[in-house]
Amino acid sequence: MISTQSSEADALGTASFTPLSSNKSPELPELPELPESSEWFSTIGKKLLTGITGLGLVIFVVVHLLGNLTLFFSASAYNRLAHIIERLGVLTYLVEGGLLAIALVHIAVGINIHMNKQTARPVKYAQYVSAGQPSRQSLSSRTMIVSGLVLGGFLVMHLATFKFGTYYTLPDGSGRDLSRLVFETFHRPGYTAGYVVVLSLLGLHLRHGIWSALQSLGIATRPGLYAASAVLGSAIALGFIGLPISIYFGLI
Amino acid sequence: MKINLKIWRQEHARVSGAFVHYTVANVQPDLSFLEVLDLLNEQLIAEGGVPVEFDHDCREGICGACGMMVNGQAHGPLQRTAVCQLYMRHFSDGDTVTVEPWRAKAFPVIKDLVVDRSALDRISAAGGYISVKTGAAPDANAVLVAKPDADTAFDYAACIGCGACIAACPNASASLFTAAKISQLALLAQGQPERKSRVVKMTQQMTAEGFGDCSNHGECQSVCPKGISIDAIAQMRREYIRAKLPFG
Amino acid sequence: MTLNARIPEGPLPHKWGNFKDHCQLVNPSNKPKHTILVVGTGLAGASAAATLAEQGYRVKSFCIQDSPRRAHSIAAQGGINAAKNYPNDGDSVWRLFYDTIKGGDYRSREANVYRLAQISNQIIDQCVAQGVPFAREYSGLLANRSFGGAQVSRTFYAKGQTGQQLLLGAYGAMMRQVAARQIELFPRREMLDLVVINGQARGIVVRNLLTGEFERYAGDAVVLATGGYSNVYYLSTNGKNSNVTAAWRAHKRGALFANPCFTQIHPTCIPVASEFQSKLTLMSESLRNDGRVWVPKQAGNQRLAQEIPEADRDYYLETRYPTFGNLVPRDVASRNAKQVIDEGRGVGSTGLAVYLDFRDAIASQGKSAIEARYGNLFEMYQRITGEDPYAVPMRIYPAVHYTMGGLWVDYHLMSTVPGLFVLGEANFSDHGANRLGASALMQGLADGYFIIPYTLGNYLATTPLPEVDTSDEAFGEAEASARTRTMKLLSIQGDKTVLDFHRELGHLIWNGVGIHRHQQGLKKTIEDVRSLRHEFWQNLRVPGEATTLNKNLEFAGRVADFMELGEVMARDALAREESCGCHFREEFQTASGEAQRRDEPFAIAAAWKYQGDEQPPELEHETLVFENVELTQRSYR
């Protein structure tokens, strides 16, 4: 949907003109051409990518959460859901592949933006303080790279633990008993504590992330949306954390 | 009152700089922060020292020449206030004030607190205008602009080009500066013919100058002496999408 | 000697048209062969550079700031006049012309002012097309307001930032040509000399303010648009970098300086709070629409404003001028304020202020009405003074903010040095002895967008211009003299700083050639300024080096020129034995204390010719001929 030809930008000749401090005759030196960047990797293109992939991941996370919540009803409901997903076959692989691609793009762009930030300010301030409202700078916005990387690492471990973890079969042999694995895992204090921490970081990531994705897509966000981002981010994090806590303390 | 100053001194771009401590006595609350630097400089000259260089001109917050980090904040602690209009009544006797130049790769230090902001001129040259030749204009009232659009365009046009948005941005991004001009012109009927090329060219130049990418921290809108909103940045992105969509 | 203004033939309304119809044009293919040096990037300089570049000339543009967008035009608040008559309230080109020439107290040139009024409409069209966000009505059409006591609403505005918006429009036009490589930009360069070869202006010598290097640039014409010289008073509403240096150095190379004593003093500025204050801030005079000006009746008052009962307050403007009251023109308001302050009735900690009180306006119209009208000004006042003008009266004091005088130019905007054109506030041409509100922006843009392209073209097309390059000995001589002067400033190593001298000079000029002037005072000012200048060259201390950014050194050069200018201002004020516009000579007033103009013999532009640093300048004049307006005496009683 987005044109990939870059000839238009070249023809505009924006890359070079008189350097302002030049003391040369009108025969002007050639300035370096701009990098031939496709729209997606321009500075705004990157924001669109992070925004779109970010929102995609938010949708996934919400769906995932709804799936998790079935455990509050019953283990069999949870297992049935897992079973349905498993039986989708090729479709599951397609969705999984898509999600993986989205996650990788999101991570790659995030790291690129972070690295650009380092080059754009090689000398740091000795003292730096946020000017406060209406600044949207927060612990959340400042730690996106940290929370993001932790979540990326967690994703691998999470898949190893659950998706590729022990394959318990249901007593009636009708499929995988995923809920048993979940209950076992969340009786391990270390894992549970770690999970709670990481999912809190997800909340932190989403606090800035949801709002920021909308802003990146050009939706001028009003204070209400900014607040909603905090509410939704926390709700997602609490939803995820609720399950292991309930299991660990034997509430379900 | 007495004010202690911890000021970044750097002779030129190719040598490293360092903080130097000074004390200025008899600072009256009605003095502006730049007047305290004036006082310090008079003191330094009397002692045979070299004055602290800083850019300044109108001293009423409109020319955009002045700008420095004061206690870690661009233009100091007051919002919607350029440092030339920061008065000492907002400080207390004995305070130590840290003063640093704008820091960004695209803003190399020239001397002390003076930085080279010509990157902003080059972004403007890349498309921050309407290509109308003198004499070619229709009657001023032939072009209608709805009042809300005209008012918002004015709010964006109020940018003074001081560079505080970049200085305060954790990523050293020039998005607010660039977006303010793009969005101003996009809101006006006169700006339509070049609407698409403008956003592409200006944002390309912004990247080429070595500014960072925007992470929506929104710090820029808090330090902007004119209070320009990051809604301008959202609009810039819409303009970009529109420019790149095949039927946009 | 009488100067020839080269005014075109024909009736007033047709002069500019006749000129355009018959002036010589430069062939388009020849335009790129001409290099034009434009100094200054304010409204006049930026609009000239952009327009000349659009036409195909090679333009080199110089400014002292780090970016052309920072020129002091940016600080103009109020608005820009044009005879559009959109409100249908009776305005016309004639009326704008008449108001401007009358407002200038008949000391400007009819033909120039009429042309200005004619061009005014095109300026608005041009700026709107550039995307200048002027205020609009709900219909989407442009809004107008009445300004500075005008009877019609002819002022276009962009909140209180009209100058900024117009300048950014011109800056944009200029940057478009920079991108097209038609303009080469030289920021942080200060013009230190004009190079005259075979009697023609052919180049400039500038100092690169970052490296300290002296640079030579040759061209076929030099356009100066370097603004006014209000900073000769030290404290003014001008930016700290505004200076007379480029114009003054051109003056010393043969350009006559006209009417230097015509300086406008604005009545509603925020008063000086301390000795170390570096500049004054103007507040829109629209404040006087609702504010009442007063001082205590008794001198030596120690009470706070709110403790002074009604009976002890002197609303002196309302008493003295029952018809106009608080809305008397700028010079009348300033003069009366100075007078009551001199009587010891000034208010505030320094005693150098009068009250501008909104108490009654707030009581009758409500706080919200006043806030809607003046909210941003009140906020600005509070930011600077720390006082809340809704609760206590504002304190105001007059401050210098515009200089009508400047380099003498003819109808073509060319100075007495062929090839040297002077635009905007730097020239003397259109405002006579007093400038009307919202006219400065109009003049700067008229000169740059619409006049210079024609008159400069005519000059280039009709003048033989032999090849010159920067190795010419005239360049060598000019560079050497600029270098010597600069190095001299550094080498004195005396006891007083530039700031000390500038402050002292400011006091002398303010007291001698300020709101009112008289013979004795002026004679003394000439002597005092001269001896201060001599002391300056003996006892100045400039720190640092000449090879890096050294703002003290820059300022020293500018103050040195202000010293010379200050003396000529006093001489001009002394020679002009009449009161007119902003020039109030105490010896020349009516029985009721109003300015007494003497059209015979002073309906002239007084143009001073440099004769050497220690020689008094020679006075030449241009007789102002008024064929279309009747010269009347102002009365605001």
Automatic annotation (TrEMBL), chain A:
GO terms for cellular component: membrane. Keywords: Membrane, Transmembrane, Transmembrane helix. Residues 19-28 have a biased composition (Low complexity). Residues 1-33 are annotated as: Disordered. The chain crosses the membrane at residues 55-78, 90-111, 145-170, 190-206, 226-251. InterPro entries: Cytochrome_b-558 (IPR011138), SQR/QFR_C/D (IPR034804). NCBIfam families: sdhC_b558_fam (TIGR02046). This is Succinate dehydrogenase cytochrome b556 subunit SdhC. The gene is sdhC.
TrEMBL record, chain B:
Gene3D superfamilies: 3.10.20.30, Alpha-helical ferredoxin. This is Fumarate reductase iron-sulfur subunit. It comes from the Bacteria. Its cofactor is [3Fe-4S] cluster; [2Fe-2S] cluster; [4Fe-4S] cluster. PROSITE patterns: 2FE2S_FER_1, 2FE2S_FER_2, 4FE4S_FER_1, 4FE4S_FER_2. Keywords: 2Fe-2S, 3Fe-4S, 4Fe-4S, Iron, Iron-sulfur, Metal-binding, Oxidoreductase, Tricarboxylic acid cycle. Belongs to the succinate dehydrogenase/fumarate reductase iron-sulfur protein family. NCBIfam families: dhsB (TIGR00384), PRK07570.1 (NF005746). The gene is sdhB. The keyword Plastid does not apply. Its EC number is 1.3.5.1. Pfam families: Fer2_3, Fer4_8. GO terms for molecular function: 2 iron, 2 sulfur cluster binding; 3 iron, 4 sulfur cluster binding; 4 iron, 4 sulfur cluster binding; electron transfer activity; metal ion binding; succinate dehydrogenase (quinone) activity. InterPro entries: 2Fe-2S_ferredoxin-like_sf (IPR036010), 2Fe-2S_ferredoxin-type (IPR001041), 2Fe2S_fd_BS (IPR006058), 4Fe4S_Fe-S-bd (IPR017896), 4Fe4S_Fe_S_CS (IPR017900), Beta-grasp_dom_sf (IPR012675), Helical_ferredxn (IPR009051), SDH/FRD_Iron-Sulfur (IPR050573). Residues 1-103 form the 2Fe-2S ferredoxin-type domain. The keyword Chloroplast does not apply. It catalyses: a menaquinone + succinate = a menaquinol + fumarate.
Automatic annotation (TrEMBL), chain C:
GO terms for cellular component: plasma membrane. Residues 502-636 form the Fumarate reductase/succinate dehydrogenase flavoprotein-like C-terminal domain. Keywords: Cell membrane, Electron transport, FAD, Flavoprotein, Membrane, Oxidoreductase, Transport. It comes from the Bacteria. The active site is at 330 (proton acceptor). GO terms for molecular function: electron transfer activity; flavin adenine dinucleotide binding; steroid dehydrogenase activity, acting on the CH-CH group of donors; succinate dehydrogenase (quinone) activity. Residues 36-441 form the FAD-dependent oxidoreductase 2 FAD-binding domain. It is a peripheral membrane protein. Its main location: membrane. NCBIfam families: PRK07573.1, sdhA_Bsu. Belongs to the FAD-dependent oxidoreductase 2 family. FRD/SDH subfamily. This is succinate dehydrogenase. It comes from Phormidesmis priestleyi Ana. The gene is sdhA.
